[in-house]
Amino acid sequence: MKNLAPFFVLLFIVSSCKEKSNYKYLPESIGQVQSILVVMEEDLWESAVGDSVRKAFTSPIKGLAVAEPAHHIQYIPPSVFKGTVKQNRTVLAVGLDSLSLAHIKKDVYARPQLIGVVKGLDQADLMQQFQAKKGDFITAFKALEIEQTQQRFKRSLNQEKGIENLLGVGLDIPSAYRLGMHTESFAWIDRAIPSGSSNIIAYALPYNSFNSPDTFIEDIVAARDSVVKIHIPGPDVPGKTTYMKTETVFMPYVTPAEIAGYKGVEIRGIWDIQNYPMAGPFVAYILNDPDQDRKIVLEGFVFAPNKEKRTPLFELEAIIKTLHPILKE
User: Fold this and answer.
1) Nearest-5° angle of CA 264, CA 266, CA 271?
2) Secondary-structure breakdown of the chain: helix, strand, coil percentages, each rounded to the nearest 5
3) Is the omega angle on the peptide bond into residue 112 within 30 degrees of 0, that is, cis?
4) Exposed end of the chain (fewer CB within 10 Å): N or C?
């Protein structure tokens, strides 16, 4: 079986030369968002090593009614890793070597670029090295993709100040979005996408909300439903009242989060419409703002029946993560 020794030697030489200079011209990286280029020999790709990589990067996104993988994987053997292919933004290189290690190289062949390198003495060693580092790979790759998504839409931003006027914080929102609703306590921004819409809503809750750890998730659902029931009606149906609510057959996933120094939680789940067959995924952030004695709530939700939700939901997450305080003059 061939190994990746020549590839790793070249990678080491290029990165070492880069470190000796303060700056080196590199071409702009390429690649689709949430796509990872995997470089390894075919026999490894078809082995348990490849299975481990596929399982790690194509695990289903939480909070979707129909499973979609977190990443798209493009596999190539080392012999194809040349020319413009080396400019891919996120790369995972795995191969047998006389060393055992797993680490991340930055801006080796393009900028911005991250290359996860995994070396091992045999397949068992490769799997051990990858398993120990896969969490770091996933986190670093996602952070870079969020940053790149933000850079793309910052070229043309919406100038409406609905969220800024409501909460005193700003978001970098692409110009394709429009302010659809703005009240004293609620803002709703949306854009059309194929067969549906992408949406951002913003509001505040009292700072002392969710005091019981035993009913934390249930209290989050109740608070969300109390707001969206009022502000997000469903289609007109004769004899029925329709409004948005949270799907509770599968309760939302809640994890710790922090954005721009505001600590809180991320919630991923499914919304639906009472008395009407309409639903989709949402990602929300409830962030503590003790200086203002409140919790800031920013949520993105997608309506796109029979379409993939991964890309628009990722864009909404990227938008919300541009959150920044507005400095008062």
Assistant:
1) 135
2) 35, 35, 30
3) yes
4) C
Q: How far apart are CA 69 and CA 36, in angstroms?
A: 12
Could you tell me the two tokens for 300?
């993105």
Q: Which ranges in the chain belong to alpha helices (H)? A: 5-20, 42-45, 48-57, 123-153, 162-167, 216-231, 310-320
Other Cβ atoms less than 10 A from the Cβ of 142: the count is 16
- For 80-110, the pLDDT digits (tens) are 999 999 999 999 999 999 999 999 999 999 9
Going from the N-terminus, what domains does the chain have, and what CATH number goes with each? 5-153 (3.30.379), 162-325 (3.40.1000.10)
- CA end-to-end distance (rounded Å), the chain: 66
Asked if residues 64 and 281 have their Cβ atoms less than 8 Å apart, the reply is yes
Query: What span, in angstroms and rounded, lies between the C-alpha atoms of 304 and 195?
Result: 6
Residue 72: per-residue pLDDT: 95
Please state, as a whole number, how many other Cβ atoms lie within 10 Å of the Cβ of residue 197: 17
217-245 average pLDDT score: 96
Cα distances (angstroms) measured from residue 144 to each of 70, 78, 194, 202, 255: 15, 24, 26, 25, 20
- Angle at which helix 123-153 crosses helix 310-320, to 10 degrees, equals 70
**42-46-48-51 Cα dihedral, nearest 10 degrees:** 110
Nearest to 319 by CA among 169, 172, 161, 142: 172
